[in-house]
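User: Please run a holo structure prediction.
Assistant: Happy to. Please share the sequence and the ligand.
User: Here you go; the ligand is coenzyme A.
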Amino acid sequence: MHRDSNVKSAADDGIKMQKKCETMIIIKMEPRHILDVAKLEAEIFSVPWSQQAFAGALEMDQAFFYVAQEADAVVGYCGVSLAADEAEITNIATAPGRRRRNIAKRLLQKAMDEAHERGAQRMFLEVRSLNKPAIGLYQKTGFQTVGIRKKYYRHPQDDALVMMYRYADII
Ligand SMILES: CC(C)(COP(=O)(O)OP(=O)(O)OC[C@H]1O[C@@H](n2cnc3c(N)ncnc32)[C@H](O)[C@@H]1OP(=O)(O)O)[C@@H](O)C(=O)NCCC(=O)NCCS
């Protein structure tokens, strides 16, 4: 992610929830979700995307978002930007109280599938080197570290890992 994706709260990250997400659905993000997504974003990141930023991205042909919804509440979201045959994860987060229930994994899988259907051969992302939950998610999904951007993030300072997923049918 190009922005400073400092994570404010990950207090419940270590809690392994027994209950999986029976009632959770993954759907394409629509304008009606912007307020809830921006609220979650502000809760989770120190330099959050604004409502306007999400609204602008939603209008772009080369960007798309999915949300995870449970009983009408948005509990996660994932955004992708496409450029030629490459895709980039621009946003991904799960509500603090809903973590370790495969929500991000399912969001990411949907996003990866659509990016591939729309021509992506590789998917990239940037992640703080100290963000173990996110790195764990990406590794589990098949991303590999392909570079490091030293001191890329501020508040607090951290390196960015550049991770890449290569779709299997690439020659
Ligand atoms: C990273 C984040 C999106 C993961 O969301 P989640 O819904 O809890 O993730 P999932 O339940 O789908 O986890 C899938 C896999 O990711 C890995 N993972 C997730 N949380 C982890 C943690 N705290 N520690 C280690 N591995 C973790 C595990 O391999 C997990 O599989 P498992 O539960 O079978 O072991 C969530 O912690 C979050 O919102 N963090 C703050 C925002 C953020 O950092 N976004 C990424 C910015 S680059």
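Residues 1, 5, 7, 10, 13-14, 44, 92-94, 99-105, 127, 131-134, 136-137, 140 surround coenzyme A (CB under 6 Å).
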